[in-house]
Every structure is written in structure tokens, then in C-alpha cells.
Amino acid sequence: QVTSFQGVAVRSLSTSSPHDHPEHGRLVYKGNLAKAVLGVKFFSYSTSIFNLFMMPYIMLKSGIGLESLLVQAAFYGLIGVFTFVTPVTLHILTKGYVIRLYYKDDMDTYTAITYNAILAEKATVFHQKDVKIPDITKMFTTFYAKTKSMLVNPTLFPNPQDYNHLMGYDKSSFFKFEELEE
């Protein structure tokens, strides 16, 4: 592989694919909503921080601190909902969204990359045998890795066999040919 860097030929002797990660393995899935999830969570957090800094100023300028206790409770409740409940709800809904999923063939392990509460990437390593499919379809869960719910879009797997192996569909068959012959 030869690439040009400011007119100078540079040769790369790397044998790995650009989709390989030395620690996690081969990239088998990449979520298409990763930037949107990060953007929405960042916007929600930034508006909450803005609200926290502006609340004392608004209270002083509006005189809401001098009104009745009922008006104060309503004001604090409304601000509290937008300041605290919205980011927490967004985090709960999106914490299992898989940004990238890697697979190590030799160890049969997966590494799911998700966002944690402080918007940093978090790696969850699990074996295929740790994957549990929920009995009832859940809105934000495709499968459980150990006890953590994960959300992936099956159509975004470039190789359908990778999804089938992740979910264990390649190991179990509904009909065995020996049983059909009997």
C-alpha cells in the first residue's frame, strides 16, 4: 500500500484492515446514529449547565424569591424537570446504543463501544455465550450482554453472518435433518 504525503511516497507495511482494532478485534458493526446520540446528549447537558448558572440570576432579577411558596415551588419544579430529568432520561434511553462492535475470532469475544454518562466511550467485553435475546421485544434492547441491554440495528451489519453469530442463530437450528428423516 503506497500513499502520498506532501509529494513523498510513504509505504505502509501494515497487514491489518483499517476496520481492525489491535485490542478489540475486527469491526463488525458501526451504528449510524452515534454522532446524533452524542450531539443530543451534549446539547442536553450544556443546556442543563446553562440553566444551573442562570437560575440565581433569573431569581434575583425577576423577584420570584419574594412571591408565595406555591409560585416558588412551581418555578423550581419546572426548571428542575428541564435541568435534571431530561438529561437523565436521555442517558437511560441511549446508554445501550452500540456505537461500534468488534469481534475477536480467536477468543470468540465481542467488545461493544457505548457512551457513558459523561459522554466518554465505554467498552463492554462479553462472550457470545453471554448474549441473551429478550423473550418480549423491547423498545431500546436488541439483546442483553450479560445483564446490560444493548441496541443494534441488524441491517447495519455489513456481513449478516456476523449478526447471526452474535445472536446465536448460527448455533441453533429449528429443524434438524435427522429428526426430519425419522
Automatic annotation (TrEMBL):
UniProt keyword annotation of Membrane present: yes
Transmembrane segments: 36-58, 70-93
Any Pfam family: TMEM70
Domain of life per record: Eukaryota
GO cellular component: mitochondrial membrane
Name the UniProt record assigns to this protein: TMM70 protein
Record's keyword terms, sorted: Membrane, Transmembrane, Transmembrane helix
One Gene Ontology term from the biological process aspect of the record: mitochondrial proton-transporting ATP synthase complex assembly
Encoding gene per record: Tmem70
InterPro entries assigned: TMEM70 (IPR009724), TMEM70/TMEM186/TMEM223 (IPR045325)
Residue span of region Disordered: 1-24
Biased composition (Polar residues): 1-17
Similarity annotation: Belongs to the TMEM70 family.
